[in-house]
Design a protein that fits this description.
Length: 194
Amino acid sequence: MKIGVLALQGAVAEHIRSLEAAGAEAVAVKRVEQLDELNGLVIPGGESTTIGKLMRKYGFMEAIREFSAQGKPLFGTCAGLIVLADRIEGQDEAHLRLMDMTVARNAFGRQRESFETDLDVKGIDEPIRAVFIRAPLIKSVGEDVEVLSTYKDEIVTARQGTLLAASYHPELTDDYRLHAYFLDMVKEAAAAKA
Ligand code: GLN
């Protein structure tokens, strides 16, 4: 399985390391042409407005929508989750608008800019270690979206078919199980097409 990490801005190298540790071949994606050779794509954390701007500038909006329409999985973490969302609270414009959810940016406030916790995730046996940095929250989801984990009753991990979204940074720990979960989604998607 070959997985790309969108490398316009944000935590790219860490995702590549985690994907490799989980058993995938991983590459940094800077040009839309690279998408053709990939089975799945990670949109990393960083700053969603910046990532969105660069995606528009380099033609990634349409190219990633097309990639997803081909049944290839996407995994958005933190800012990447915001980029996947159909609706962003307090903003008129969203980015890819692929995942049926409303997100709130910087939802934990200033007191809790960053923190770590152990999180139960549906489909993963033991809690995973999650690092939250100026993290968004998923405020509401459509009926096709499955909630995979909550933190203090707020949704922080969700899946809609071939789309996976996490509010936190799974790539900043040595716990690769959420990346492994995504690789399983990619394998399932590839098998379904074969
Ligand atoms: N606060 C950032 C945003 O709104 C996301 C933070 C992150 O990715 N660590 O885009």
